[in-house]
Specification:
By secondary structure, this protein is mainly beta. Helix content is about 10%, strand content about 30%. The longest helix is centred in the N-terminal third of the chain and has 6 residues, at about 10-15.
Length: about 120
């Protein structure tokens, strides 16, 4: 539902300059998002007056972003009897830390889980 706070310019574009709650936010689940990378986004809105669906402007002009995980293992060193792994990890286009898991002998599912931390 488009009922989040909006700025006056949005109300003016809707010929209702007094309207203040015309924005929407629709979270897309990670599994869905990964399957749709690069595909165009189409958003439709339903009119309660005409009982019809309408495409919102600029449909197809925006694509699902590629927030794929990227990273690199820089080093594995022995620091006083403890192995310390260092490197970096991120989700492309997202400015927040991500969790990293360490497996021995192979990837998740076949390797042995050893530890986890954040990619800061």
């Amino acid at each position: 539902m488009a009922n989040n706070p909006s700025e006056p310019a949005v109300g003016a574009a809707c010929s209702a300059p007094w309207a203040t709650n015309l924005r929407f936010n629709i979270p897309v689940g990670a599994a869905t998002e990964e399957a749709l990378i690069g595909r165009p986004i189409l958003v439709q809105a339903y009119s309660n007056l005409s009982r019809q669906w309408f495409r919102l402007g600029n449909w197809g002009g925006i694509s699902y972003p590629d927030n794929a995980i990227r990273g690199y293992i820089d080093n594995a060193s022995d620091r006083g009897g403890q192995v310390v792994l260092s490197g970096w990890g991120c989700a492309r286009g997202v400015a927040q830390s991500i969790w990293v898991h360490v497996y021995a002998g192979g990837p998740a599912g076949s390797g042995q889980f050893r530890d986890r931390g954040t990619g800061e």
